[in-house]
Give the backbone structure.
Amino acid sequence: MRRVFDFHGGIHPAENKQQSLTRGIRQAGVPEQLTLPLSQHIGAPAQPVVAVGEQVLKGQLIAEARGHVSVPLHAPSSGVVAAIAERPIPHPSGYSAKCIVIDCDGRDQWAPLHGVADYRDHEPTQLLERIRAAGIAGLGGAGFPTAIKLAGKPGASIRTLIINGTECEPYITADDILMRERAGDILAGIAILRHILHPEQVLIGVEDNKPEAIAALRSAAADAEPGLEVIAFPTKYPSGGEKQLIEILTGLQVPSGGLPADIGIVCQNIGTVVAVRDAIVDGRPLISRITTVTGEAVAAPQNFEVLLGTPMQYLLDLAGFQPEHCLRLIMGGPMMGFTLASAAVPVVKTTNCILAPSASELPPPPPAQACIRCGLCAQACPASLLPQQLFWFAQGKEVEKLEQHNLFDCIECGACSWVCPSHIPLVQYYRASKAEILQQRHDHEKAEQARLRFEARQARIVREEQEREAMRAARKAAAEQRARQAAAKGSEDDPVQAAIERAKAKKAAQQSGDAATPEQQAAAQLDALRQRLEKSEQRLAEGRAAGEQEKILVALEATVQRLREKIAAAEAAAPQPETH
Amino acid sequence: MPLLRISSPHAHGSTSTASIMRQVLLATLPGILVLTHFFGFGTLVNIAWACVVGLACEALALALRRRPLGFYLRDYSALVTATLLGIALPPGSPWWLIAVGMASAILLAKHLYGGLGYNLFNPAMVGYVVLLISFPVQMTAWTPPRGLGEVPGLWQALQACFLPAWYDGVTMATPLDVLRQNDGLLLQDLWQQTPQFGRWAGLGWEWANLAFLAGGLWLLYRRVFSWHAPLSMLASLALCAALFYDGGSSASGGSPLFHLLSGATMFGAFFIVTDPVTSAVSVRGRMMFGALVGLLVYLIRVWGSYPDAVAFAVLIMNFAAPFIDHYTQPRTYGHRKPRGET
Ligand code: SF4
Ligand code: SF4
């Protein structure tokens, strides 16, 4: 047996998974209308490529990826585009966002699909492009674009591919049922990922509370290539967190602020792997997913294969929803899921569960009491944080302390809140603090940018002024030059006059002793300055022409400017050595 | 359909502060019964009266601070403080002594610092030490245990408490006292000549300690506390005793077993050192906290000027808890270095 590791903390909430496992996966069918948010993934929202009133086929591209971190969107069923407008979406804040609304025609007619006969004939980059084109984002939770995750960092080689079949949240069974019913598809998907990544080992991690899933995977894996293992490990929440699963299976920790790829690991969720298979083998884009509908407020909890965009109300009704028993509706599990403002929002790529608990099942939390520093939260925290200290600092809005105590390493798993005997909603405080700090950073960055812009503008104004000044000075210098030449010419023209001048100068010098007269000194100084200025100007011009660094040019400009000022001052102070 | 909108997690474990406090109260029962058996009803009267004063002080403080009375009174924390102080005081203490102790504990040590969770020092121990310093005579007036004298009944105990002048209780030195005062006698002889000693430690005391140990083990079994602080305190106390135990000369401080079963050792280890509010929070921190309490208990018992040292040791370490916390922060997932070192 392979060694499995443990991670710090963790809790054992009631699993409540059996309810939704008594039935197999059921097709949810085609609702009258589908609402597809343009952003069902992390990154830039997709860009619509259809117009209102346009007829679309099932699987047809309706919005394309925009930018690097983005994925396209496809019509989950055939019909007519009814609207491209704001609609309420499933989001913790209850936002509305731009959606493509399709009135289904009920025929569910496919666009032509093009799978590949044998993925081994294709380059990894080609396969990645297909995965991206199929609109696949992680189906586990965060919805990170899968192709990007698989492409990884250039130069970083992946030694271990981890398939996450953990599903540690109570109530959710979408992955469990997929492993039971479609283990073959999962293995086929893994084979494709292996072809893309060439990892040394593939580890499928499953908690030991899913014996059927483990058995199904093991028997399907029997004739897979070597280097693949199905690993069962003790049930504990939150083993399904990517970082925790990595630690369980490999004993390694992902460095703070880093990615699994930094230690040669890529994780993929079970559902994502099946979507990859469908995209490559069948050419089928991601238009449906498995979603668990459960909780005491539905009569028949079960898993559905549901088209993306299906209203949750439609799905709840299929499961026998009894709204009178339900106080809150949760997308996701009870530990990390968020409450929905209404059941009208659609199923999206990350909807792994709709939880409709009865009031007695998940009662509203009792009022919070004082923290008694019992330390239970610190014992439960999988990130080895000190939740009670974070809570303390969050209350006092001590931003620096919060960051020092690694607030941003909190994965918001909720284990601390779950154990807290004083019922303090700890995670809520952390979320709020994180949001506040991010906002502050954002504001700070904006202010900083504004400052830089302002300074650049000031510098430009000064520079332009200097350039104008320089041109004026140059013109003046040229004029003086001409005048001097004329004067010199004049004195040469008249040798007598020149001789008188020389004699006068000599006499004046003698009168003031050995030292030169102040006028002469000033004149000499001025000459020296002028020479330096000329040199500097020349150097500056050369620098500009050679495209030297901004810094150097600025320094040179400053020198020129300073010299000019000195000359001007000297000219003003000293009696004019020459009369024109 | 208006739906509730709240932040995750939506499920909650079954522990609550009140249930923790209730379990602590329950766990003190064996110890209280043994104390009552050996020293009479004085302990029960202590506790009952301390509870009355404690709740009154708590209610007063809450009213002054304009906090909802019912909500906070139901957390049982005042009752826990009262029970702990009641146990620690000599049986049959006068009513005013208990009242002063409880008022110091609740008003001074707890609410002046902001109430439950904000107090720096263990309230029961603050109450105890205030009394010990102010009224040393009353505080060392332990009645002789069953077997050495008459054990007061309920009526006598009530009289002792509320009509102190009418009751002339017999008092005697506790075994820890006797041992500390001893010079000239080998421990073995001391043991034989002094009626206060029992089989392993003091008569009655050893059984009380075992009863508190039982209650403490039950709390550990119920996972109300972790084992780290109590175990490290007992271990360090036993280790110190073992290091300085010379086999029983007149200068010896007593054997490890004697120290483990004497005075407030077990009571302190499981009911005082484990007080979450005033101890360190991390696992390493708690072990350090407990070990230092054990060390201090031994130092004060053997070389200090007070016979029992648990209260002082705990208060001193309460003072140090924030520092311990600062230097024992765990290493966060994915970080190389523990915090506090950057
Ligand atoms: S679990 Fe709750 S009461 Fe206990 S230390 Fe943490 S925040 Fe405080
Ligand atoms: S929510 Fe954050 S602080 Fe709380 S247990 Fe999870 S990781 Fe730790």
About this structure: The CA atoms of residues 265 and 310 of chain B lie 7 Å apart. Chain B touches chain A at residues 1, 3-13, 15-17, 19-20, 71, 75, 77, 115-118, 226, 276-279, 281-283, 286, 325, 329-336, 339, 342 (CB under 8 Å).
